[in-house]
Structure formats: C-alpha cells, structure tokens
Amino acid sequence: MNIRIDGVEYPATKDRNLLETCLGLGLNLPYFCWHPAMGSVGACRQCAVLQYPDEEAEQAGRGKLVMACMTPVSDGARFSLETAQARRFRQGIIESLMINHPHDCPVCAEGGECHLQDMTVMVGHRDRRYRGRKRTFRNQYLGPLVHHEMNRCITCYRCTRFYRDYAGGTDLAAQGCHDHIFFGRHEDGVLESEFAGNLVEVCPTGVFTDKHLVHDYTRKWDLQSAPSVCAGCAVGCNTLPGERYGRLKRVHNRFNAEINGYFLCDRGRFGATWVNDERRLDYPGLRGEDGRYNAIDHHGALQRIVSSVERGAVAAVGSPRASVEANFLLRLLAGPARFCPGFSAVEQPLVGEALALLRASRATVPDIATMETADAILVLGEDVSNTAPRIALALRQGVRNRAYAMAAGLKLQDWQDAAIRNLAQDQRCPLFIAATAATRLDPVAARSLRLATPEIARLGLRVADALAGDNSNDYSHDNSHDNPDDHSVHREAAAIADGLRDAKRLLVVSGTGSGDIAVMQAAARVAEAFRDTGREAMLSLVVPEANSLGQALLCEGNGSPDLDALAASAEAGEIDTLLVLENDLYRRAATDQVDRLLANCQRVIALDQLDNPTTSASHLAVPAASVIESEGTLVSLEGRAQRCFPVFPPHAERHPAWVWLLATLKELGREAVSDWHHFDDVTRGCAAAIPALAGIAAAAPDHRFRNHGVRVPRQPPRYSGRTAMRANVSVHEPKQPEDEESPLAFSMEGLNRDQPAALLSYVWAPGWNSNQGLHRFQADVGGPLKGGPAGIRLLRANGGATPLPRHATAAFAVEADEVLLVPRYRIFGSEALSAISPGIRELVRPACIELCAADAERLGLADGDGVQVGDNAAALPLRIDDAMAPGCAGYTAGYRETAGLAPNTRQRLRRVAHFSPPGPTVIGSDRGGRHG
Amino acid sequence: MNALDRALTHPLTRNVTPERRPFDLAAYEAGGGYGGLHTAIGKLTPAECLQIVKDSNLRGRGGAGFPTGLKWSFVPMEDGGPGHKYLICNADEMEPGTFKDRLLLECDPHQLIEGMILAAYTIGADVAYVFIRAEYLLAERLLREAIRDCYGKGYLGRNILGSGYNLDMHVHSSAGRYICGEETALISSLEGKRANPRAKPPFPQVSGLWGRPTIVNNVETLCNVPHIIERGAQWFNDLGLTEDAGTKMYGVSGRVKNPGCWELPIGTPIREILEGCAGGMEDGYAFRGLLPGGGSTDFLVAEHLDLAMDYGTIGKAGSRMGTGTMIVLDDRTCPVAFVQNLVAFFARESCGFCTPCREGLPWSAQLLAELEAGRGQAGDLDTLAMHVDFIGTPGNTHCALAPGAMEPLASGLKYFREDFQRHIDGRACPYCEREAAA
C-alpha cells in the first residue's frame, strides 16, 4: 500500500494512523496528545496536514485539514505536510498554546529535553501577538517524587490519560473547563499510583518533573548515561540512569518493546538514587581492636582477602541482586558446595521451584509485552503491584483486549483510544485474583478472592481439574464436607473455569510472593490444564530480586547450601572465612541467627556498597560499585539475561565486585582465571562453565565491538563544561576515563546511532531533544528498536519431560488462638536499597502486622497494639485492615524486623505491654510554601 | 379555528393555551393524545414506523437539520444479543436566544413523552433519557410527573399496550454546560464523565451511551413524531411551504415590539416572522441584522429578509437556520459588543479539550474586548480574521462548538466591518460615546 505525501510516494500500512506513518518515515510532524503507547484522541490539533480528495485537487492545492493522528491511511491517499495552509495552522496551534505558557525555560527542569520546545522550534513560531494576561494556577504538593508546575501546562491531556486510563489511578484528573483546566488532585497529597513517576516522561513539558532532579539539577545535555537494568525487582525493566559530578541525577525509561515499553514503576524510577547515599563505602575498612574501621588501600585489602582465603576453610554467601558474573566468581572462589546463593532459607526452595516449574511447564513463559496479549488472566497468590509492579501495569492492558476485540467489530483501529474506551466502557477480559489480601488490581478484576495461602493453592488445583473436566480429585481429603469455606472454593473454582470458557490465551501469574511452593505448582497446573485444551497458556512466576533467577540457574541442581546449612557449618567450626557479597544477611534471617553465624566464623569479609549491619559485623568491609557503576548481567524473571553498563566510573575504591573477585582469584593463582582480563572473559567463562547460563555472553556486544568503527558515547554531543567541572580543583582537564570493559565511551566522542539496542545510551535525534525522539531509534514507531532486541532469553523449557508435581493440600483451618502468617510486600520498603533512596524514603512505612477486624476481635487485639509473633524478638504494631483474608495475619515482608518470620506458619500473636509504635515517617517535608 | 384544524396546522402547539397551562395526562388524552402510540405500538413494526418518519422528511430541529429517519436507520436493528439501546432527548436548550423547547416542555410534556416512546420503539431502545437543562425546573417537575403518570397508565414500563415492548424513561438534570447540547458531550456527561465531545466516527448510533447504539434527538424533533405517525408522512410534507416538511417553532428576541415564539409552517419568510409575528422593530430602533438560528449562526441583513426560513435557503445565504430562533441586532447596539458578548460566552463554555477552541476563543474574546474598550490596534482585525479561519473552519476543532462560535464574528466582520474599524480608528466604542452624549 502506498500513500503520497507532498508528491512523494511512500509505503504505508493500514493499521497505522497518518501521524505514526509520517514519523516512521522520518518526516517531522509535530504532535502533543498522541502517544505511541496510548494512541490518539485528537485533542491538541498539532499534527494537522492537508488531505486531498484526488489528484486534481492535489494539483490545485485544494484540500481539507485533517489531524494526522486521527486519520487512517488508505491506498493512494494524498497528503501535504508542507503546504502553507497546514504549516500556518500548526503555527497557530503553537501560538495558541504559548498564550499561557510562562516561557520559564531557563528555570524549568524540562528545558533542553522539552517536547514543547522542540515542537515550537519545529513549526517556526516566534512572535507573540496575544496581549492579554496569562492564566495562572496554584501548584500542588504531589508527594516526594513528582514536582508540579501547572502554569506550564498546554492541556494535552496526556497526564490524565496515562494516569487514569492507562495505569488505573484515580486521584489525578482534569478539573475545571475552558482555558482554565487544572490537572492535579482534589487536594494536595501524595499521588497514589505506583506509576505516577511516568508523568515526568509522559508530560510534553515541565508540568510534572522529577522532584529529585529538580532539587539536584542537571540539564539533559550535561548528563552522562548508559544502558542499565533496574535492580528494583525481577522484571528487568531497562533504564537510562543519568549522572553528573559523580552523582546519579535521575533514571529515565529505556525503551524495550518486549519488557517495559515506555513505562517504569516508581520503585524503578526513583529507587536508584541510594547510590548517592552518604553511607556508601568508599575505601576498604579493616576492623581494629576497638571495633572501629581503619581505611586501607586497594592493594592492602586484596592481600587481606587473599591471605584470609588461603588460611583456612572458606565459605561464601552470594547475592540474588548482584550480577551473574560476581556471583560466578565468588562461587569459583569458594567452590559450589560452599557457596550459598544468598537467599533466605525460606526463599531458596521457592526460587528453585519457580525455575523448575518454568522448565517443566509446557506453557509459554511470556515477556511483559506478551502478557499484554492475554485474553484471560489468573493471578494466584502474588501481589504483583508490590512485588513486580510493571507486570501489574501489563495486566491492566491485558484486560483491555476485550475492548480491542469489540472495536474490531466496529472496524475501529487500535490507536483510536477514546473511541475504544467509550465503546468498551468497563467491559474487560476476565481477570481472576486469589490473594491473602486486597490488591490494587482488584478494581479491574472480574473476581477477587481473599483466601488463606493453602486455599489459594487448592483453588488453583480445582480450576486445573475443572479445565481438565476432572472433578474426581479431592485435595482436601479430610473435612471438605463439613467446611463451608471448602464449598466456596469449589464454587469459585468452577466459576473461574467457566469464566475461562471463551478464552484463547490464558496468562497465569504466581510466584514466590505467597511463600508457598504449592501455590506456584497449582498455577503451573492451571496453565498446563488450559494448554491441554488446545489453547495457548502462559505462565509467569515472579521471583524476588533482580538476579534471583540468575542465581537459581547458577546453582541449579547442585545442592548449594542455604543460609541454615551455612549456619550449621559455621556452628560446627567448618568456616574460617566467610565472604559475603552485596547481601545484608540481617534481611535474610532473624537477627540472633545472623549474629550467631557471623560470630561462628573467624573472619567475615563483606563486599558491599553500603554500610549495613552485615558490613558493620565484618572484619573487612570492601566497597563495591553499584549496579549503576558497574557492568554485569542480570537474569530477569522470564529468564532473560540483560547487561548493564556503568553509567560513570565509580569513585575512590568502589570497584565492581567482579573486579575485586577476579583480582583475588588471580592473586590466588587460580588456573581457571589466568587468561581472564576483562569482564567479557568472566562472562564467557561463566557461560562455558554453567550450561544453563551459556547464553549470557550474547546479552550484549563485547568490549571489542565498535559501531561504524567508533565507540558509543555516554555523553551527548552538547555535553558542556568538561574543562570547567574541575576548575576549582585544577585548571588542567583530566583525561577522559577509558572504558576497557565495554564498547561505550565515558565521553561525547562516538556514534549514538545504528548501535545494537543493548548499547542505547541516550535518546536524542536532530530536532528531537526530548525522549519523544525515541521513534527515530525504532524500526517501527512504538515498536522494537532498530538495534534489535536487548538481552537474550536463557530458559529452555524441557517440553514437559518432567511431570508437574501434584501435591494435595490440607484444608485450611486455624486454631482459635492462632493465625496463619502471610507475607505482604510493599513497593516502597520491601526492597532494601530503593527504600533508602531520597523521596521513596519518605513513603516507606514501618513494618506491621495486619489483621481483619474479626480476627483482631477474636484474638483480643486492637489497632495500634504492639504484637510479638511467636518467638520473633521484634514487636510490631498491629493494623486492622479488612482487606486481609480471615484467619491470616499479614506481616510486612522484606524488612529487617520481619526477617525471622516464616510465611504460612501458624502462629500465636502476643500483645506487648507498653508498646510505643515506631515514629511516623516524615511525609511532605517540602510541603508548605506555595510554589509558583 | 377549531381544535382539529389547529391540531392539523399547529401540531406542536395545539395544546399551548394563552395562559400556558400545562396539559396533564387526562387533558392530553382528551385532545387525542397518545393517538400515535395507539396507532403504532403493537400494530406497526419498527421498520414501518421508520419508513413513515423517513418519508416525512423530518429534519433535526436542534440546529443541524440532519434527516431524522436517516439518523435512526443507522441504528443496528439485528438482534445484537443482550445489551441495551438508548434514546436520549436533548432538552439542554442553551443556545443563546433560544427558548422554543422550553415552551414545548412546559406546556405539553406528554407530547414529548409520546414522541420518545415512538422513537424508542422504532429504534428498539429499551431505556430513554431526557437530558434537561438545569434551569428548566418547572419543565423538569412536569416531566417527572408526566412520566410517573405514564408508568401508571402502562405507556411506560413493561409490556407497553400489551405489545411485549418495554421502555423505561428517566429524567437527568444537566449541570449547566452549553457543550452538553452537543450530542456526544451530552452522552459523556450522562455517563458521569467530563462533558467533552467525542470524535466521530464511531457515531452514537452505533457506539453511544455506555458504548451502546444511541439516538439523541432534540425536543422539538421528537414532539413531531406522534403527529407524523398518526397522520402520515404526506400530511407532514404538505405542512411545509418549501422543500422542507412540517412546522417549525420560530422565535424572535431583541428590540422588536412583540418578542416571542410561534409555530409556523417551515419555510415562512423571515419578514413575516419578524414583522408579522414579532411586530417589527421597537419605535426608535432600526433593523441592522439578525442571527437567524441562535447565537452560533451567521448574521443575515436587510437584503435577506424575504428569504424563506428553511434549512436550504438560509444555508445558501451563508448562514444556518440553527434552532430557528432569531436574535435581532438594532442600530443602537454596538455590533462589536454584541459579538464580543457571544464570543465571551462561547469561550467560557468551551470544554477545553482541543487547542483552537480552548485558546482561540478566549483570545478572540480578549481582542474584541480590547476593541470595545478603545484599545484596539492596527492588525487586530487581521488577527480576528485569522481566528475566524483558524477556529471557525469545521474539522480544525474537535467538535462544532468553535466553528459555531465564530459565525457571528465571521459575518460581523463581513457586514459591520466599518463598525469594527471605527473602534480602532476612534480609540473608543462609537455606540458608548453616543450613549454618553445622549
């Protein structure tokens, strides 16, 4: 199919609107309200072009203005972008938008990467004719993450469309009317959506900006950035962190069509600035007799590590948040039998089982984009909004496939966003959720069940049986006929199976978050049973951390000791030196248990970024570079190996862990590493040694790769002040640091174009200074990058060779004075490092125990009481929350205070006399002054 | 004139008495009311009803003049499984200078209800809404009473007249926005959303209220339906004086001797309405022009007074018949202030969705205010003309509000350009000066 634009024939496809088509052809057509992930509504009228009905009209120049974003293309259609009529109209739109815009670019955080600036320059508007007053607004306090400056607003409606329509938020809306439309909350307050940070990138100008960046500001052109991967959870969203003066300034989304697309969650966007924390270790510290640490140099530290390793029995604790390479080297150092992957004792079998199920299942293991194609979804026991938030956003899109199906019936195209939403209203694909508490996805769910963990597993098995048409199994084998709840599980399972009757692509989501292997197994069974009916099934299992799955692959099948086993070895005096890699063990096990473990080892060497209780208990604390400052491979929950690159060289002696460990191994004279000099050698060594990780070397081009003969720059061409940055220290400009480990350069020299997607270090194209220029890097507007996919899928299913386990679960019942302890994760708090990032820190609430009112009454407890769980030392405040399933006590997971609690155990809660609750977290420290 | 004759020539206002006493159900039925209902429900198929309405050449009386039967024919009639279809009566009469629907609502609510039942029956709707202007408190009360009486009588509810046809009817009082008169904005508002118009296609006939097929008709349009069904398409066609069919509610406001609203055969010449019904200009005032169909239509001037008030004729003269209710401009009222007042109204009533309307109307209003205040500058008329083109060209904006809003300005600049120029040259409004001098 061809269309004519300004007399030139171009190829076009019919499912694309004219704006997408033009952008895809590299034509400069300005726009505001259209967004590649959100489609068209026709609000801003910026993308007007002239459409000619026929050739004769084209020659006479007689056409009609149409909005490109609202115009389907058809074969032979004729348009003009360049005709004066269209250009004048587009100028008129910008001129109208500029009536009220404050022109405060010099003090605006968006300046230099502002889509409004780009479009203004693009249309050539310059002179102001409007003589009236500008309208003004009062700005709001929207929480510690997002800054609000309403006067800059051009009323494109993208923010509400993203926040409400795309992400399901309710507390941000268009208010007022005519030329006085206000986008904000009903009153000042923290934005509720866990995706609010995307407003920063969705807003085409500076209304919503990154509050951290606003307070620690650098222009985009002065930021150094490199492709990175979010370490906030196991989803593996691609990020572009930006640095200046050795400080991380902000994190932007790095488009990956298969994973995060255009959007990140707030943990990912705002949760990496902990790398600027004052508690970062700068130099190796050797603990003296007095318990204080003395800084020693790199060489001294290395010698101490080597001599410690040489002197006796070594054991090591790796980390599910550290790179595959660092863990691999540590395992090489300690030996597989003495390498603990660093999970908690509870988590280790859970992650192992997740991997085993992903391998055993014949269902597809989907990436995020594939999840969005599901036409039915079942979530078993995993609160994805808090454990893998980007998946929650994908599920919100998945349920909209009903709307697209309805739209197809009216011949509407997928980009006709408003029309499709008006047509489908609240009709959605079925989403069924079974969880121990309410979840944020409940409002879009067809059915949301609050069940105790074993009941969730039973529900899953029942659904699987119902799909298989098999009603003979009785998983409760004891009191099902007496237990009214059991009938309800039967009934609900039948209803869910019935609800899946018309589905063609089922997505089952579960994971380690329920703390119960049986729940994941039930999820796998549902997917399998659905697949057996000849339809497509997808199985996604959420694991806890950025490299949990990589760690499981590294240790697969060789019986690595868990933390309990390690503690037993230490107790038996079998460990002289314990090496701990990027892991605060006090978040993995009860305090007294970790105290004993560390005390039972003669020497503890902790390699970590931050001063934490584990480093504080070590004999030698070694500073490590963070994920932002080092290269590494992380394996996401779908088994995708992805490479991160250092955004900037680490300070002082903060070397990447792999550097410390490789140097140690070399000092020890280990044969295996004698030829290894580069990061790539470690990666390849790991790929060769561990068959399951064989693919990791292909996750990104190696350090010898050159893009058209040159490196890929980390700094944009307009990076300024290179000679002035250090002028207060020395007038001599230091040489730019060399990057010997990657094809990227710590400079502006090189070519940021045509590179493989894994090497996209910033988004910038001529005339397109904002992130909207991304389409110039995409093979297809809104689609995959020209550089191909980033990362590589490692998981190879074994095609159902191992049968899925099938365990019976006993019916759930608690004694009168007991509760079932269930984990509750929080997007802000359950992940240790993001929780101390400025901004997020203000949103972290103290750990607590949650009970429904009926259970609290049964146990004689009241809101605000302090309770002790079993023999866990810490007393926790009790919160009454009727979102909890009956019989279940939720504990805030991932916190030090709850590290000793075992999920899905029956416990007694003891009320603590004279309990003083932890002080309230300060929220809104920068509230107060009227901004603007 | 006896009652039957009046019903034949003034079908819409046959029950409107000089004291404007509202007709209750008994009185309405006594005068032959619900005759259309008895004629059609259970006796004619929806397809037969549709054909009659099509043949009648009834055109929408809300302003756009779209053929009603054609509009109804877009509603999918094949059994689409479960789900509803909706009929909405647009009673959000907010067009400046327009008060015709109010008369019909306050004097004869049952006529509207009967028309709605017939329309809903024809398109297969099972729920109907009256979306009524918030200020029409009396009309709202009367409608609610009338609907209640109809449920009691079996004209609404389950199994109407034993036909098996069901219809529920609700009254929704608007929150007072001009844009709600735009049918898709009305639908958004009825759904509880911001009253923003929707892009078409899809048209409400296939995806309207709650995403279901929906017909939105004006009060006057629907009031014609019972008569058409009862007396037939030919009778209705014969009522019109020109190519359009039926009667029309015409109104006149401004400095005329007898402002008001009259039902006349469609196609009655403007002069007859202005001079015959409205009694001509008040003493001491001379005619300068008029907006033929409400505040969002182009000026007509003296040379147009003998034109027939119908859709085609007024359209050819460069304006629109709109709602058929004229606003008269006299020689002692400043045309700039007149237009400024209207543009400021439309700027205020913009929903704020699309840029040209949201930003361009306040800009135009601001410029006109500057002119009126004697602060106009050379080039301002060019800027205004730019806006007429920029905002006023249909398709440039998301809906028809802005093009309508620009019509008085566009035609004002054409017919009264000297007045505009004098505001700039004299640095003052000549009409204000004259008033001050007097």
From TrEMBL, chain A:
The lineage of its organism: Bacteria, Pseudomonadati, Pseudomonadota, Gammaproteobacteria, Cellvibrionales. It holds the Pfam family Molybdopterin. Residues 1-87 form the 2Fe-2S ferredoxin-type domain. The keyword Acyltransferase does not apply. GO terms for molecular function: 2 iron, 2 sulfur cluster binding; 4 iron, 4 sulfur cluster binding; metal ion binding; NADH dehydrogenase (ubiquinone) activity; NADH dehydrogenase activity; quinone binding. Composed of 13 different subunits. Subunits NuoCD, E, F, and G constitute the peripheral sector of the complex. One of its GO terms (cellular component) is membrane. SUPFAM superfamilies: 2Fe-2S ferredoxin-like (SSF54292), 4Fe-4S ferredoxins (SSF54862), ADC-like (SSF50692), Formate dehydrogenase/DMSO reductase, domains 1-3 (SSF53706). GO terms for biological process: ATP synthesis coupled electron transport. It catalyses: a quinone + NADH + 5 H(+)(in) = a quinol + NAD(+) + 4 H(+)(out). This is NADH-quinone oxidoreductase subunit G. CDD domains: fer2, MopB_CT_NDH-1_NuoG2-N7. Belongs to the complex I 75 kDa subunit family. It comes from the Bacteria. Gene3D superfamilies: 3.10.20.740, 3.30.200.210, 3.40.50.740. Residues 223-279 form the 4Fe-4S Mo/W bis-MGD-type domain. PANTHER family: NADH-QUINONE OXIDOREDUCTASE SUBUNIT G (PTHR43105:SF10), RESPIRATORY NITRATE REDUCTASE (PTHR43105). Residues 85-124 form the 4Fe-4S His(Cys)3-ligated-type domain. Its cofactor is [2Fe-2S] cluster; [4Fe-4S] cluster. Keywords: 2Fe-2S, 4Fe-4S, Iron, Iron-sulfur, Metal-binding, NAD, Oxidoreductase, Quinone, Translocase, Ubiquinone. It comes from Parahaliea mediterranea. The gene is nuoG. The keyword NAD applies.
Automatic annotation (TrEMBL), chain B:
Pfam families: Complex1_51K, NADH_4Fe-4S, SLBB. InterPro entries: NADH-UbQ_OxRdtase_51kDa_CS, NADH-UbQ_OxRdtase_suF, Nuo51_FMN-bd, Nuo51_FMN-bd_sf, Nuop51_4Fe4S-bd, Nuop51_4Fe4S-bd_sf, Soluble_ligand-bd. Residues 336-381 form the NADH-ubiquinone oxidoreductase 51kDa subunit iron-sulphur binding domain. It comes from the Bacteria. Keywords: 4Fe-4S, Flavoprotein, FMN, Iron, Iron-sulfur, Metal-binding, NAD, Oxidoreductase, Quinone, Translocase. Its EC number is 7.1.1.-. The keyword Metal-binding applies. It catalyses: a quinone + NADH + 5 H(+)(in) = a quinol + NAD(+) + 4 H(+)(out). It is an enzyme of class 7 (translocase). SUPFAM superfamilies: Nqo1 FMN-binding domain-like (SSF142019), Nqo1 middle domain-like (SSF142984), Nqo1C-terminal domain-like (SSF140490). GO terms for molecular function: 4 iron, 4 sulfur cluster binding; FMN binding; metal ion binding; NAD binding; NADH dehydrogenase (ubiquinone) activity; oxidoreductase activity; quinone binding. Its cofactor is FMN; [4Fe-4S] cluster. SMART domains: NADH_4Fe-4S. Belongs to the complex I 51 kDa subunit family. NDH-1 shuttles electrons from NADH, via FMN and iron-sulfur (Fe-S) centers, to quinones in the respiratory chain. This is NADH-quinone oxidoreductase subunit F. It comes from Parahaliea mediterranea.
